[in-house]
Amino acid sequence: MKRMLGTFTILAVLATIGITAEQVWKVHDMDRPRPKVVTPGDWSTADKAGTAPSDAIALFDGKNLDEWAATDGSPTKWKLVNGTMESVEKAGYISTKKQFGSMQLHLEWQTPSVVKGDSQGRGNSGVFLMGKYEIQVLDSFNNDTYPDGQASAVYGQQPPLVNASRGPGQWQSYDIVFHRPTFKDGKVQRPATVTILHNGVLVHDHYTIMGSTFHGRPAEYEPHGDKGPLQFQDHGNPVHFRNVWVRELAD
Ligand code: MG
User: Fold this and answer.
1) Measured in angstroms, how far is the CA atom of residue 168 from the centroid of ligand 1?
2) How many Å apart are CA 173 and CA 64, to the nearest integer?
3) What is the domain range of residue 184?
4) pTM of the predicted model as reported, rounded to 2 decimal places
């Protein structure tokens, strides 16, 4: 009885000062480790390339294509133009040499200022996470197409919450928080999720991805490793990219 009372007293004291079994730190605990200091980057402007935050992996800073290759590992035929990388028709996708799983991704993109074509034929490219999951890049400013294929859609799956597109020739941004899927015994164990801001506007709020991207048929998961390349699509339209960086995230 005395021992029980002692335990009860200790639990009551812990509860009073705000400690539960799950909480290691007291409220406002000055002994709690400080978050690492990160110097933020900035967006590009007309006369200055943007910069990555100090703890990011800069994949394209406007100076060279050293971090990139064709999907078969050969040198890419995409071009370096005025501090941007430009897709080239029939050059195929461009792929990072490094591989990534869960990540925060920032990129800026620009469709042609001279409007040519319509629907999916106008400023089409795409961001392939892990080489599998496409976030659509398209000129969706006064350009109707199927909603799950407009700009910032998870292609073939989910339209954006809103159409936050800027006009042709203007620079636009994606900020993407992606958590990779996990697989067990050839089946998806935990599906991937994605949160996306298009030009600072929320367009996907922790959306659960249904599987790899296909054209014209439903998505389904194809088991793959813990990491994959980041790829941009060549869809035959000249689209520019700049200020691309990744911060790897814990799973
Ligand atoms: Mg595309």
Assistant:
1) 16
2) 20
3) 45-248
4) 0.89
R_g of the chain computed on alpha carbons: 22
User: In angstroms, how far is the first alpha carbon of the chain from the final one?
Assistant: 46
Q: What's the CATH code of the domain at 225?
A: 2.60.120.560
Pairing between β-strand 171-179 and β-strand 125-129 as defined by DSSP bridges? unpaired
Question: In terms of domains, do 70 and 187 share one?
Answer: yes
Q: What is the pLDDT of residues 49-92, one digit of tens each?
A: 789 999 999 999 999 999 999 999 999 999 999 999 999 999 99
User: Whose CA is closest to 79, among 95, 66, 97, 65?
Assistant: 65
Cα 85-88-94 angle, rounded to 5 deg: 60
Count the domains in the chain.
2
Q: 22 and 62 in one domain?
A: no
CA of 188 to the centre of ligand 1 (A): 25
Residues with a beta carbon under 5 angstroms from ion ligand 1: 124, 126, 233
Identify the CA nearest to 106 among candidates 49, 66, 38, 56. 56
